[in-house]
């Protein structure tokens, strides 16, 4: 099995355990944080949109919550069943069990989102190409990616750890997640006083998550077979090479990249 299929299988397993989107993790507050500074929640109202890599459907529900007219939800893993059950406004959502590169070339979508997905795909160019073809001229593609910049200490710890954890059986990884959960809570508390690495993310995002969702986020970092951390120029190149124009980048909470590009008219 190649890295792409192994990663899809990993997520199928992950989402069969962490199934819900409760609290801040699935909130409109977090959605607004993810799409800013490029978009306001209001701009999605009445739009035809897609999300590539929908997981348990939290972004899909945020999009319908923002008033999207219709959402195409793409999820290739076995978590498709979880996604299907979690969708809150099914009359507005079409769920497709396909990979991003298989997204049909609708040519009429206003926005396509892919949040935390392309960094798990070894060759994301065909997915970017499919998004380009599915958008209407003037439509926008917004992606969110793990970043390298601002993450050096974290990556020095996590890269060697992941070499082991991505191979661990589920019960051992859950055990490790429980162990890491406690010092992480302490680290978040210290961030209130000291300018520690990842402080922005800790205080603006992770601290607001429930204990279960913090554990999911630890698991999510350690489990997938493939995860790439993008440098700014790589993140920009992804959309520029995909023929998008007006490509803009935002260094979200100093550790990740939000990138938006427009399909030329
Ligand atoms: C970290 S999750 C993000 C889920 C969702 N976007 C969210 O923010 O809650 C990544 C998702 O991308 C999906 N994925 C992996 N490879 C993919 C591919 N080639 N095409 C589309 N989705 C893929 C995984 O199955 C997984 O559900």
3D structure, described in words:
This protein has 265 residues and is an alpha/beta fold. Helix content is 42%, strand content 18%. It contains ten helices and seven strands. It has helices spanning 3-17, 28-35, 58-65, 80-86, 125-134, 152-165, 170-191, 199-204, 211-222, 232-241, and strands spanning 48-52, 70-74, 93-96, 109-115, 135-146, 245-252, 256-262. It has a seven-stranded mixed beta sheet with strand order 3-2-1-4-5-7-6, with helices on both faces. Strand 2, helix 4 and strand 3 (93-96) form a beta-alpha-beta unit. Helix 7 packs across helix 9 (211-222). The longest helix has 22 residues, at 170-191. The radius of gyration is 18 Å and the shape is globular. The mean pLDDT is 96. S-adenosylmethionine is lined by residues 4, 7-8, 11, 52-55, 58-59, 74-77, 79, 99-100, 115-117, 120-121, 220.
In short:
With 265 residues, the protein is an alpha/beta fold.
Which descriptors would you attach to this protein?
alpha/beta, binds S-adenosylmethionine, 42% helix, single chain, globular, 265 residues
Largest sheet: 7 strands, mixed
Low-confidence stretches: none
End-to-end separation in angstroms reads 40 Å
Backbone shape: globular
Which class of secondary structure composition applies to the elements?
Answer: alpha/beta
The residue-averaged pLDDT reads 96
H-E order: HHEHEHEEHEHHHHHEE
| Strand order across the largest sheet | 3-2-1-4-5-7-6
Strand content: 15-25%
**Count of distinct strands:** 7
Q: Could you tell me which ligands this complex binds, including any ions or cofactors?
A: S-adenosylmethionine
Query: What's the total helix number?
Result: 10
User: Could you tell me the radius of gyration in angstroms?
Assistant: 18 Å
Helical content stands at 40-55%
């Amino acid at each position: 099995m190649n890295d792409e299929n192994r990663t899809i299988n990993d997520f199928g397993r992950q989402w069969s355990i962490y199934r819900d989107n409760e609290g801040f993790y699935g909130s409109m507050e977090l959605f607004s944080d993810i799409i800013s500074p490029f978009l306001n929640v209001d701009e999605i109202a009445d739009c035809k949109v897609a999300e590539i890599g929908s997981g348990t459907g939290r972004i899909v529900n945020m999009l319908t919550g923002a008033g999207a007219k219709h959402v195409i939800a793409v999820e290739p893993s076995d978590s498709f069943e979880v996604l299907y059950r979690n969708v809150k406004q099914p009359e507005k959502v079409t769920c497709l069990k396909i990979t991003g590169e298989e997204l049909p070339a609708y040519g009429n979508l206003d926005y396509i989102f892919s949040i935390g997905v392309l960094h798990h795909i070894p060759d994301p160019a065909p997915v970017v190409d499919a998004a380009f073809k599915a958008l209407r001229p003037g439509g926008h593609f917004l992606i969110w990616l793990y970043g390298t910049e601002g993450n050096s200490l974290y990556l020095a710890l996590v890269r060697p750890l992941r070499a082991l954890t991505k191979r661990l059986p589920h019960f051992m990884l859950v055990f490790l997640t429980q162990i890491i959960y406690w010092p992480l809570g302490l680290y978040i508390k210290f961030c209130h006083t000291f300018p520690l690495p990842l402080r922005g993310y800790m205080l603006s995002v992770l601290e607001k998550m429930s204990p279960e969702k913090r554990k999911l986020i630890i698991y999510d970092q350690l489990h997938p077979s493939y995860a790439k951390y993008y440098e700014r120029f790589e993140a920009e190149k992804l959309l520029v090479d995909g023929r998008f124009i007006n490509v803009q980048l935002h260094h979200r909470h100093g550790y990740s990249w939000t990138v938006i590009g427009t399909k030329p008219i």
